[in-house]
Amino acid sequence: MQSLKQVARRLKKETYAVYLASTDQRVPWYARILAGLTVAYAFSPIDLIPDFIPILGYLDDLIIVPVGIWLVLKMIPPQVLAECREKAAAQIEGGKPINRAATVVIIAIWIGLGILAVIWLTRIFIR
Description:
- By secondary structure, this protein is an all-alpha fold.
- The protein folds into two domains: 2-96, no CATH class; 97-127.
- Helix content is 79%, strand content 0%.
- The protein contains five helices and no strands.
- It has helices at residues 2-22, 29-43, 56-75, 78-94, 100-126.
- It is globular, with a radius of gyration of 18 Å.
- It starts with a helix and ends with a helix.
- The mean pLDDT is 84.
């Protein structure tokens, strides 16, 4: 059980390092895009398979996020990755990193999806 906690901490640190690398101009554009998508998926409450579905709900998180991070880590130049890992470790030790812009975007997505659902249901029931 202890090794599982260590893996989770390492994955958290790597995810934050990938986020930092996604904002670095020295990283190729395609790696920044994949990094942004991977980090957004990791921190987003919206999943491909909702978590309340037994086994499958968490299985997508256990596969998509680590594979995405692994691919991105292969694309990031080693010196940039080392810097981002140091920054991530310092930031995580100093306290939980907060990204207000990401929070606003996720809330906006949920509000937009809610509005679309209301419009769609209204059209169905008015006919």
